[in-house]
Write a structure and sequence with these properties.
Largest sheet: 6 strands, mixed
Oligomer: single chain
CATH class: Alpha Beta
Distance between the termini: 16 Å
CATH architecture: 3-Layer(aba) Sandwich
Helix content: 40-55%
Radius of gyration: 14 Å
Structural class: alpha/beta
Strand content: 15-25%
Length: 140
């Protein structure tokens, strides 16, 4: 089974826009087609964005975080990387993917993470690219 790490923006989009491409990625995990991994950094960032940027009520944000915890396995990175200089917090997403031994990192970050394309054998895709890849695998 393929191991996948989703960037914080994927969770945000999935929960705000049900049925969207990011939500379809999470559906693959819900249906048991992929193994999803997350780190405490991603969970903390998700909490912060939901509360501060989207001004979500605390109970609602905790409900979303609990859904992510139930869906994903939590890993804690042991290795630090400095691949992205412009926005160093994005390195934590890559660190999570390394710790999870992920096959894929799915992100909507077109400025910092997607341009990397691949890092240490981890393919970096947008939700649409990842879903296309999954369809291609089913046909093969």
């Amino acid at each position: 089974m393929k191991r996948v790490v989703c960037d914080t923006n994927i969770y945000i989009s999935a929960f705000i826009f049900p049925g969207s491409k990011p939500d379809q990625v999470l559906d693959l995990a819900r249906q048991g087609f992929i193994e999803l991994y997350v780190s405490s950094f991603i969970l903390d960032e998700l909490r912060r964005v939901l509360l501060e940027k989207f001004r979500m009520e605390h109970t609602k944000s905790e409900e979303i975080l609990e859904r992510v915890r139930q869906l994903a396995t939590i890993v804690e990175p042991e290795v630090r990387v400095f691949v992205i200089r412009e926005k160093q917090d994005d390195n934590h997403i890559i660190e999570c993917a390394i710790a999870a031994k992920a096959h894929y990192l799915v992100t909507g970050d077109t400025k910092h993470i997607l341009p990397i394309g691949e890092y240490q054998g981890i393919r970096i895709y947008s939700p649409a690219e990842f879903l296309q890849r999954e369809l291609w695998l089913e046909e093969a």
